[in-house]
């Protein structure tokens, strides 16, 4: 359990700068006049955040969420360096299993089959999350 937490922290630290750059560029693209108009309409800070900032940040948030889901399916380096898939396969990922089957057990066909299934599941998951985010954005009038 501790090893999964440490690996999660490592990946969050590694990717936080990249995601922060995307979110900061989204924030900087919001025109200051929109905030001035919200203030003139009597909107408070909380309401301005939820009714102005979040909808205007939707494209950046959408991008960060889709990228984060894609990255989560490709975790290999962190697990390989820290634990090698152990202890007792507690931190084993699909990418680690593909590596073990192909290069440790020399079962390249089985590793290829796992790779194909991993790719299909990754693309399907990203597609489902993308559709869900699009529907959520349409429902709230953000997209």
Number of domains: 1
Low-confidence stretches: none
Average of pLDDT: 90
Number of DSSP strand runs:
0
Order of helices and strands: HHHHHHH
| CATH top level label | Mainly Alpha
Q: Superfamily at the CATH H level?
A: MetI-like
Strand content: under 5%
CATH fold assignment = MetI-like fold
Structure write-up:
The chain has 143 residues and is mostly helical. It has a single domain, classed as MetI-like (MetI-like fold, Orthogonal Bundle), CATH 1.10.3720.10. Helices cover 78% and strands 0% of the residues. It is built from 7 helices and no strands. Helix 6 packs antiparallel against helix 7. It starts with a helix and ends with a helix.
Please describe the topology of this protein.
Elements: H1 2-28, H2 32-40, H3 45-56, H4 58-72, H5 77-82, H6 94-104, H7 108-139
Index terms:
elongated; 7 helices; 143 residues; MetI-like fold; mainly alpha
Summary?
This protein has 143 residues and is mostly helical. It has a single domain (2-139), classed as MetI-like fold, CATH 1.10.3720.10. It is built from 7 helices and no strands.
């Amino acid at each position: 359990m501790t090893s999964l937490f440490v690996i999660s922290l490592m990946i969050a630290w590694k990717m936080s700068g990249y995601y922060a750059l995307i979110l900061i560029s989204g924030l900087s693209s919001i025109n200051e006049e929109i905030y001035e108009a919200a203030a003139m309409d009597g909107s408070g800070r909380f309401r301005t955040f939820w009714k102005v900032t979040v909808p205007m940040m939707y494209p950046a948030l959408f991008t960060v969420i889709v990228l984060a889901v894609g990255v989560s399916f490709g975790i290999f380096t962190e697990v390989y360096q820290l634990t090698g898939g152990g202890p007792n396969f507690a931190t084993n990922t699909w990418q680690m299993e593909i590596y073990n089957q192909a290069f440790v057990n020399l079962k390249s066909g089985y590793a290829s089959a796992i790779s194909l299934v991993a790719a299909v599941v990754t693309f399907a998951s990203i597609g489902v999350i993308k559709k869900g985010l699009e529907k959520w954005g349409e429902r709230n009038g953000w997209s």
